[in-house]
Amino acid sequence: MNISTQSIALFLEAIKAEIATNADEVTALDQAIGDGDHVTNLLRGLEALEKQAAELSELDWSAAFMKIGMTLMSTMGGASGSLYGSLFVAMGKEAKNNEMSLQGLADIFHAGVQAVKTRGKAELGEKTMLDTLIPASHALNVKADAGASDVLDAIKQAAYDGMLSTKDMLATKGRASFLGERARGHIDAGARTSQLMICAIADVIEQN
Ligand code: ADP
Ligand code: MG
């Protein structure tokens, strides 16, 4: 597997379609235990990236990830804007030392997820996007030697299980942490959108 930055437009299109299809559900999740703006924040970032798709396709992955991170940081707003921004900037730094094979991507994504943990001062089990990102990163690290379709299936499954695991958690970070026990019974919006995006990316890789 060797993905080029020429595919960025395809990834963005697939991600946006997936978020749009599930927008009402995600907004309801963020309304239940947050302030309801998560989809709007995300779409603002995705639209800014779409405008840069041609430019991004001329860059190598390191520069492209960095630019994506800076753009998300400056356009999205919300807690998720700085967290996704940190994710991609850190991926860009790590991509300097790695090629975009599955093994390389495992290292790159791991570095990105570490940066989200640092930025959000959060860990697994706090009812955030990290409950999707950490298991997905772990699956990619464990499976990176397997065939591409096994790896992609493992990531999708780990992201899905991680997203669902947030339902019964208490939130200890972000807006939902103000709700105490009332946050239980609701899936975290950021965990859901990161799972949707990971699955959309995996599907594009599988089909190309
Ligand atoms: P805001 O909470 O500022 O309104 P968004 O609605 O865009 O921003 O994003 C909320 C999502 O951000 C949450 O659902 C959660 O997944 C994620 N999040 C919030 N705080 C943190 C944190 N400290 N660490 C990791 N993720 C977080
Ligand atoms: Mg919000």
- Hetero compounds: adenosine-5'-diphosphate, magnesium ion
Look up the CATH topology: Serine Threonine Protein Phosphatase 5, Tetratricopeptide repeat
CATH architecture assignment name = Alpha Horseshoe
Low-confidence stretches: none
Helix fraction, binned, reads over 70%
List key phrases describing it.
binds adenosine-5'-diphosphate; 0% strand; binds magnesium ion; 208 residues; Serine Threonine Protein Phosphatase 5, Tetratricopeptide repeat
Overview of this protein structure:
The chain has 208 residues and is an all-alpha fold. The chain has a single domain (5-207), classed as Serine Threonine Protein Phosphatase 5, Tetratricopeptide repeat. It is built from ten helices and no strands. It has helices at 8-21, 23-33, 38-51, 53-56, 61-75, 78-95, 102-120, 130-143, 148-165, 189-207. Helix 1 runs antiparallel to helix 3 (38-51), helix 5 (61-75) runs antiparallel to helix 6 (78-95) and helix 8 (130-143) packs antiparallel against helix 9. The radius of gyration is 16 Å and the shape is globular. The chain starts with 7 loop residues before the first helix and ends with a helix. The model has no long low-confidence stretch (mean pLDDT 96). Bound molecules: adenosine-5'-diphosphate (ADP) and magnesium ion. Residues 30, 34-35, 37-38, 41, 78-80, 83, 120, 122, 128-130, 173-175, 188-191 line the site of adenosine-5'-diphosphate (ADP). Adenosine-5'-diphosphate (ADP) binds at residues 30, 34-35, 37-38, 41, 78-80, 83, 120, 122, 128-130, 173-175, 188-191.
